[in-house]
Structure formats: C-alpha cells, structure tokens
Amino acid sequence: MYDAIIIGSGPGGYAAAIRLGQRQKKVALIEKDKIGGECLNYGCIPSKALIELANSINYLREMPGVSLNYSIDMKKWQEWKWSMINRLTGGVETLCKGYGVDVIRGEAYIVDATHVKIGEKVIEGKNLVIATGSKPVRIKGIDDVMYNREVLDLDHIPESTAIIGGGYIGVEIGTALAKLGSKVTIIEMMPSILPGTDQELVRHVERRLSQLGVRVMTGKKVLNTQHGDKIRVNMEGGEYVEAEKVLMTVGRVPNTEGFGLENLKLEMDGRFIKTDAHKRTSVPNVYAIGDVSGQPMLAHKAYYDADIAADNICGMDSVVEYRAMPYVIYSDPEIAYTGSKSAKSTRFPVAANGRSLTMNESIGTFNIYYDEKGIVTGAGLAAPHASELISELSLAVESGLMAMDIGLTIHPHPTVSEGVKETAEEAYGKPLHFKI
Amino acid sequence: MYDAIIIGSGPGGYAAAIRLGQRQKKVALIEKDKIGGECLNYGCIPSKALIELANSINYLREMPGVSLNYSIDMKKWQEWKWSMINRLTGGVETLCKGYGVDVIRGEAYIVDATHVKIGEKVIEGKNLVIATGSKPVRIKGIDDVMYNREVLDLDHIPESTAIIGGGYIGVEIGTALAKLGSKVTIIEMMPSILPGTDQELVRHVERRLSQLGVRVMTGKKVLNTQHGDKIRVNMEGGEYVEAEKVLMTVGRVPNTEGFGLENLKLEMDGRFIKTDAHKRTSVPNVYAIGDVSGQPMLAHKAYYDADIAADNICGMDSVVEYRAMPYVIYSDPEIAYTGSKSAKSTRFPVAANGRSLTMNESIGTFNIYYDEKGIVTGAGLAAPHASELISELSLAVESGLMAMDIGLTIHPHPTVSEGVKETAEEAYGKPLHFKI
Amino acid sequence: QVPLPEVSGHVLASPAVRRIARENGIDLSKVGGTGEGGRVTLDDLERYMKSPAPSPAPS
Ligand SMILES: Cc1cc2nc3c(=O)[nH]c(=O)nc-3n(C[C@H](O)[C@H](O)[C@H](O)COP(=O)(O)OP(=O)(O)OC[C@H]3O[C@@H](n4cnc5c(N)ncnc54)[C@H](O)[C@@H]3O)c2cc1C
Ligand SMILES: Cc1cc2nc3c(=O)[nH]c(=O)nc-3n(C[C@H](O)[C@H](O)[C@H](O)COP(=O)(O)OP(=O)(O)OC[C@H]3O[C@@H](n4cnc5c(N)ncnc54)[C@H](O)[C@@H]3O)c2cc1C
C-alpha cells in the first residue's frame, strides 16, 4: 500500500514524488515514456539548448569584424543534447530513488481512486496524483507536419520552415531556426503573434523578427497541408506558403483519455481536470497537478502545484496562493512578466542600458506596475536576460515591496538589472540614464 | 556662480551632475578626456563587450557538432566598440545638457574650495565635487606593458599574453583573451587569484581557467620586464615567462595629484580622499565620490556616492547606508556576491540547475547566508549570469526578507534563478533538485 | 496565455510571513502591519503570536 501513486513523471509528477519522498511517504511514480516528461525531454530543456546555440551563432554573425564560417552536424549536436538531457533526467531518477520512490515504467490505467494497473500489475495507494501533462493539438487535414518532439529532434536545419501557430513555442523555435539559417514563416490566426501577451512587449519581438527576416503572417487561418516537393500550407482566402518542413504549434491539450480517468467520474473544467485551491479533484484523495489541471501550462506552475498537493497529502493545509506567477518567453528579446497590472506604471528603454549595448542589443523595454502607495504589483520586461531578471520583481510583488525598495538597492554595473532599478526609480523620482 | 562644480565625468561625476540637474541646480561638469570616464571608455563597458565576444566564440568551439572557422578583424571590431561606447557617452552628454549641465572640456585645476581653473578660465561654485577617479598602478622596471586602456584597444589578439596581477581585471581579460585564442599566463603575488574573494567561489574559476588552458602562477613576485623578441617577465627566484604582450593589472590608485588638490589641504585616508557618511571631505562644501574617495572602487558604488552627495548638496540629509554592496566579476563562471556572511549558509551546485546545463555549463555554486531567524544577510554565487542574479539577493538583504520568501516565490523554468530559489529552500526545507 | 490580471486588495506580507501565519491559524488582517504601506513584517507577526492584540471576534 503506497501513500501516493503518481501518474506521469514530468515536472508535476516527479516534483510531487520527491516532495513526498522527502517526508518519508511511500510513493509510486509511473511513467510510460521518459522520466522528466515533456518539459525535460521534448520541451523546455531542449528548446532552450537550441535557442542558446542559435543566439550565439546569430550574435557572431551580426557582430562587426567577425567573419564566421560554421557548420552544424545536427546529428552530433542531438547526441550532445540527449546526453545533457539524460544527465538531468538521470539525476531526477536518482533523486527519486534516493528518497525511496518506486519508479515504475509502464502505462498506468486507473481502476479506481485507490487502484492503478500497470500492465498486469495492480498497485494500491491512499492518494492518487494525476500528472499526465499535455500533448499538442492536432487538426485533421493538417498532416505531414512536425510537432514539438520532431522539431527538437531535427537532424538538419531545414532550408525553409513554415510554422502554424505564433504562440510562445512557435515564436521561440521559429526565431531559433531563422538564426540557424532557415527561411521561416510564422502563420498566426489571431491579429498578432503571442496572443494574450501584452502588445507593448510583443512589438519589440515583432521588430526583431522582421530584422531576422522572419515572415510573420497574422489573421490567417490554415485550412490544410499538401505534400509535394515541398509541403504546401493552404490558408483561407487562397494564400499559401511552401516550405521544406512545417511545424504545428497551435496549442496543447491535457492528457485525459485512454488511461481510465473516466472511471473516477471527476468533475472537469473544460478539457482540464477541475481542482480546488488544494489541488484536490472532486473525488477524495485524488489530486491533479501540472498541465492536466489547468492554465497556465508551465513547468514552474507544475512544480508549484506539486508542492501544494504534497503538503496536503502530508496533512498540511496548503493552498494555491501566489501573487506573482512569472511567464517567460525565450523570444528575441526575451519576454518575461509577473504579477498584475495596476493604475500606475513606469517604463525604461533597453537602448538606455549600457550592459545591453555591450551585447549589441538595444531593442526592448522594462515596465513596472505599482499602486498608489508605490507598492509593486507586477512587471513586464522585453530585454536581454529578462527570464533571469523577472524573479527580483516577483520577489518584490510577493513580499509587498515598494518600487523604492528596488530603486534604492544597489544594482551592480554593468548589468541589465540596472534597467530594472532605473525603471523602479521612475516611480518616485527620476531614472539616471533616461529623460522622458 | 554654479551651485556645484564637478571634476571628472566618470560614473561618479556624470551621475552627480545629472542628479543635481534633475533638481534644477546649476552645474559645471569638467572633463579632460572623454565623457563617461574610465568605466565607459576604458573599463566596465569595453571589457564586457570583449568578454561577450569571447564567450560566444568559446561556447561554439566547445559545443559538440559545431565546426567553427572564424576570424576577427579587431580593427573593425574596435570601430564597432567605439561606436557603441560613443552612443552611450553621447547619451550621457545629451542627458547632462538636457538637465542644464554645462559640460566643460579641459583639465580642471583647483584654486580653492569655490574656484576652479580650466586653462585661463576660472569658474566659481558653491560646492565642489571631486570625482577624478583612479589610474593603474605602475611599477618602475616593469615597462613595455599594456594597462587596461591598451589591452581593450588591441588591434589583434596576441599569440601569447602574460598578465601581471590576478585581480578581477586580470582574470576577466585573461579569460577573454584565452577564449579568443591567446596563450595566457596569469601571474599573481598572493597565494591565490582574486585575492579578497571567497575561495569557495574562486575555486570554480580556477577550475575553468585550467580547462581553458590558462596558466595560473600564484605566489610569484614580478621583478621586471625585458624587451627582446618577445617580452620577458622576470620573477623572484629566477622564473620567467615570455609573451608577445604583457598586461599589467596590479591595482588602481586614486587620481589625487597634479590638479591643485593640495590647495584644499584635505584630510586623506591613505591615498584616498577621506569622506564622511555624507560624502563630505574635511573642507566644508567639498565632496569626494567614486574611486577617489575609497573602496570599493566600483562604478555602482560611484553612482551611489553621487546620489548621496547630490542629496546633501540639495539640502537633504542623506548618508551612505547600504546593507548589500554587490561585487561582480565577469570571470567564467561569473562571480557575484552581496551583503555579509552569517552563521548559517546553504549551498546548491550549478550542476543541478537545468538551465545551466542547456548552456553547456555545469561549474559553480549558489551560496546564501542567513541568520537564526532565517533572514538573508548575504549571498555568493559562481554561476552563469550571476551578475544578473545577485540583485534579487541584494533586494532580499536590503529589505530584511527571509530565505523562505525567496524559496516560496515562484521562479520561472528553466532559468538559472531557480538555483537561487533552491538554495533558499535549503534554509528551511529541502531543495527539489539536490540531495546532500 | 493569460494576460496580467487587474490587482485586487489583500494583506501586504511576504510569502514567509503569510505561510507562518497560515500554519499558526492566524488571520493576517488582524495583525497590525508596521512596515511600509501597512506591510505585516515577521516582527509584527511574532509580536502578535506572543500576545495577540485584543480582537473582537475570537476564531
Ligand atoms: C516546446 C515546448 C517548450 C516549452 N517551454 C517551456 C518553458 O520554457 N517554460 C515552461 O515553464 N514551460 C514550458 N513548456 C511547457 C512545459 O513543458 C509543461 O508545462 C510541463 O511539461 C508540464 O508538466 P507536467 O508534469 O504537467 O506534464 P508533462 O511534462 O507533459 O509530463 C507528463 C508525463 O506523464 C506521462 N504520462 C501520461 N499519461 C500516462 C500514463 N497513462 N501512464 C504513465 N505515464 C503517463 C507522459 O509520458 C509524460 O512523461 C514547454 C512545452 C513545449 C512543448
Ligand atoms: C578594465 C576595467 C574594468 C572594470 N570593470 C568594472 C565593472 O565591471 N564594474 C564596476 O563596477 N567597475 C568596474 N571597473 C571600475 C570602474 O571603472 C570604476 O570604479 C569607475 O570608473 C569609477 O568611477 P569614477 O567616476 O570614480 O572615476 P573614473 O571613471 O575614473 O572617471 C574619472 C574621470 O575624471 C577625469 N579627470 C581626472 N582628473 C581630472 C581633472 N583634473 N580635470 C578634468 N577631468 C579629470 C578623468 O579623465 C576621468 O574621465 C573597471 C575598471 C577597469 C579599469
């Protein structure tokens, strides 16, 4: 009898397993594919490795004085990538085992709230944690396309790539492929790429995409694909794009079918499993965490969910209660935002930040939101290293700090973080390096 | 009659000018060389541009699958560098003028506390701010060497470089030159490079330097140099090193001579001008800020001094009062530390941070110091992007936050900042990705 | 993706203070904050836990 059975070993599942193992709970972690889930194997980790490679190449190509001749043996690079991933996922598995977790390979099938079958074997648990993640949306008629797994496993850089869907995954990978020499077209149905993200931040990315020669087509609905010499992507209205490879990234849907979930008769929330603030489903002792349990479908949200579920399984009354959920997009420039908007805001341009200029970067903005008392409620950045900078702002939001707390803290020179400081200064005074 | 005369337009001087101008004070800013001082023209900014270039080259050279053939026309690169610097310094000058500052070119000579001569012209001011910065230590007999200006203006990468002095400037530039293909030897008199920096952090840099083929000689006193085919650096005990170029970076001394400073009969503090917590010297209405006024000789400390002096000149009673002075070294990995050590500390290895692995980086550590109540007092990082990460920790120290505040704040995945979060977690619980 | 939502009112306190209060069954809105903007600090919470201010409604 396990204290908890966890289905799926992505960021949600493996984190829950480790957190429970750390508190001496007896846990079974079931995975049908690779430990680490979508994120470590086919998502966050490999995409950032590819982006890092592309950024270096492109930085050197754009740098005056540098003559660059390079070739990339993508097969060899993929070997490196997988060895890097295996180091990570191997580490996760070792950690799980170190905390006494039984890692079971195989497809889980839910019999009832306390029984799960893996092949012929049935195991029993007091609690059940569903962490089955998500998969890409597929559309009939749009065939011969790559999804995130295939594009991240490419054995060569396609001469041309059409990307259906200009969400963060499409933009991240599209930018990287363009920097690596592919002729990229991004096709988005909405009026703008990165729908849902502040247009004030997105426009910097649009500008950069156009510099990089990426063709962005917005407000275009894709009807189907046709396989010829190249692949042809047909849009409503008769327009089409031809490309060697087509990547489909129009969204992700939770994995809720084919593993007996229906036997639990859980309440749903659209396609997601409905959970309360404790990450409990409508059935006692059944939890759902990560992508399967609702937006935002992000790895650090899965980690957070895992902490909450593990606490509750251990008898602690923990609830989802954050004031700052960070979003990061590894576009060029990187976009990161956190917290919430407010009546007041300040702005500082990346072009006025010395450290950015030393990187040959000058596109982007720092925005901080604060209330009448000067307390920081959120921030939005489009800047080099925005992904790393956003946590100072999340900490400020979570802790109820004032913009002045950030502005009076000495930030080292020369760093991009000085841009954050100067943006904060504008909330109560004037920044040093920018005059409105 | 000016409200203030400022001598020197480095980070100290120009920031004081802008801060005073922002409050409608009438200011004269005198500069004999280039606006922006040592930092923007010959220090922080160009060194970081060179390091960025070197890092990209080296990352690609070390990346499996990538075949790299490149050449760098350093003359063209220097043109880019200077255009980038001119954009920054031009921006600073425009800002100064926008705030009504008179920017005066020429060498200032102090007549008395209220009168300064530039050539034949004498100007009068109610307050005098000395921001003359510092210059490299020179030693008789050690000739034919480059200092920071010359090395940052190189028109080619030397086949071999000997660096006398393993402080942060020597290590930063030595690492960059090595990555750009020079055979580098660093000679340090003390038992270790980066004297004064926590050895716990330094050892990661030593390890990386050795991977990069940099020869590090410690405990060696240099006697003199001899010019032959190459330059020969002779050490005590008969040892010597030969190299195409020699860089001398054994420290910096404040600029206190040759401009009439003696006429003020200021109290000194060793070679520095002595100042109180208001950045006032021993003579009324005379302030000293930046490198000339004491350690640490860092640009962000000069900015901070400028704020304090400007406040006091404007009649506000501001004093030097920080809990977290950040130090950043752009070594490989970057080192950054802030605040102070404490009885308790936690540690997390860079090798357990996913984002670092995607960059092909795994050397380094995150350390956080905290007191019995769990309040963060300081941190030391040797990690990718440590320079950008340290500000979250400075903010925590300045604001009296607990390690738990950092640990409970959601940090986005995948980022190096997750390493900071996990280090904090160890102060009250357990990190997710590391088991001691 | 979800855009930045508009902000709503809540007790200002750092995550650790919120967590410690919750673990001890303390309603933070009853603890007077002495920090900037009425922020409840760790000291405020500890003081309250030692001698809860006379509050009208016992929980
Ligand atoms: C290309 C790409 C890039 C991304 N980049 C980022 C990023 O930079 N930052 C970020 O925060 N997020 C990113 N994401 C999203 C992130 O990957 C997900 O939010 C995260 O993986 C969700 O974790 P999870 O644990 O809920 O599910 P998953 O990681 O999807 O893991 C679910 C696991 O469950 C297993 N499973 C499913 N059903 C069963 C069953 N019946 N039996 C056994 N095992 C089962 C699956 O095999 C899988 O391993 C990215 C996603 C993609 C596709
Ligand atoms: C290679 C190198 C790298 C560095 N990297 C960093 C870093 O990454 N981060 C960091 O924080 N610090 C760094 N520093 C240190 C930083 O440059 C100094 O701390 C900073 O420049 C100090 O600013 P300042 O205003 O006191 O003086 P300075 O920048 O030295 O400026 C003084 C100015 O005064 C002028 N002047 C002097 N006398 C007169 C006179 N009589 N009349 C008119 N003008 C006069 C000079 O011409 C000069 O322009 C670096 C230094 C070097 C050399």
Explained architecture:
The complex is a heterotrimer, with two copies of chain A (436 residues) and one copy of chain C (59 residues). Chain A contains twelve helices and 24 strands. Chain A is α/β, with parallel strands linked by helices and 436 residues long. In chain A, the strands form six sheets. In chain A, strands 1, 2, 4, 5, 6, 7 and 19 form a seven-stranded mixed β-sheet that branches. In chain A, strands 20-21-24-23-22 form a five-stranded antiparallel β-sheet, with helices on both faces. Chain A has a four-stranded parallel β-sheet with strand order 11-10-9-15. The mean pLDDT of chain A is 97. Chain C has 59 residues and is an all-alpha fold. Chain C contains two helices and no strands. Chain C is globular, with a radius of gyration of 13 Å. The chains are: A alpha/beta (436), C mainly alpha (59). Chains in contact: A-B, A-C, B-C. At the A-B interface, helix 1, helix 3, strand 3, helix 4 and helix 8 of A face helix 1, helix 3, strand 3, helix 4 and helix 8 of B. Strand 3 of chain A pairs antiparallel with strand 3 of chain B, so a sheet runs across the interface. The structure holds flavin-adenine dinucleotide (2 copies). The site of one flavin-adenine dinucleotide has 35 residues of chain B, from helix 1, strand 2, helix 2, helix 3 and helix 8. Chains A, B: This is Dihydrolipoyl dehydrogenase. Chains A, B: It is an enzyme of class 1 (oxidoreductase). Chains A, B: InterPro entries: Class-I_Pyr_Nuc-Dis_Oxidored, FAD/NAD-bd_sf, FAD/NAD-binding_dom, FAD/NAD-linked_Rdtase_dimer_sf, Lipoamide_DH, Pyr_nuc-diS_OxRdtase, Pyr_nucl-diS_OxRdtase_dimer, Pyr_OxRdtase_I_AS. Chains A, B: It catalyses: N(6)-[(R)-dihydrolipoyl]-L-lysyl-[protein] + NAD(+) = N(6)-[(R)-lipoyl]-L-lysyl-[protein] + NADH + H(+).
Question: Could you give a short description of this structure?
Answer:
The complex is a heterotrimer, with two copies of chain A (436 residues) and one copy of chain C (59 residues). Chain A is α/β, with parallel strands linked by helices.
